[in-house]
Amino acid sequence: MSGMETVTKPVLEIRGLAKRFGRTEVLREVTLSVARGERLALIGPNGAGKSTLFNLISGREAPSAGQVWLDGQRIDGRPPHQISRLGLARSFQVSHLFAHLSAFDNLRCAMLWSAGQRYSFWRPLSRLRELNSRAAVLLERLGLQPRRDDSAASLSYAEQRALEIGVTVAGGAGVILLDEPTAGMSRSETARCVELIRELTAGRTLLMVEHDMGVVFELADRIAVLAQGELIACGTPAQVRADARVRQAYLGALPATEPAHD
What we know:
Layout: E1 12-21, E2 24-34, E3 39-43, H1 50-58, E4 65-70, E5 73-74, H2 80-85, E6 88-90, H3 103-111, H4 129-141, H5 157-170, E7 175-179, H6 187-200, E8 205-209, H7 213-219, E9 222-227, E10 230-235, H8 237-242, H9 244-249
């Protein structure tokens, strides 16, 4: 290799990752890399190990074997708060919002660390003008300005999911993990959520677990497929759709063609 050549390293690397619970193998030798700025969708039948993989990447569980690297730093086995500070943020299937805080205050809390405030609890949030301004802009982008002062618990399901995505990106993390962001939404709510994800993750790296294949083909640059704890395919949407192993795992549930784009 000449001195003029440069090698772009993946921002997220999963190397031989495995997870066992007793004698049960949930993940086996999963190796995957995600390029900076890429949108990668992780799909697979129920019980394939998708949520477990997210838990290992985000630090909620430690792997039985293998490694996870984030931007050149090994993060497997580290606690979630350390991984978050290194630039990886995750949403969950079940809402992790502060139910009794307003939508606006949920966003402000998520922004505190990135705003450099850290543990300055004695400073009233109302004085943090830049933080308040950023939170207001994000609230508007989420379409939640009319619900600014309403508690998170009082929001509709779709509004809570939108706020959850907002909280996930609010801290400025470069790598975003979204766990079934459109689950339980109507078609119109899903369409709005897809546009929101596209807008809020622009320029960032996205790893997403999603069961709605229309959403997957709409958003993903590449698709990785888990089945029975193993990675059986990874490639462009067209490559994955044509893969016989993937179609067998899904029993023909994949659409024959890509959904039409507006």
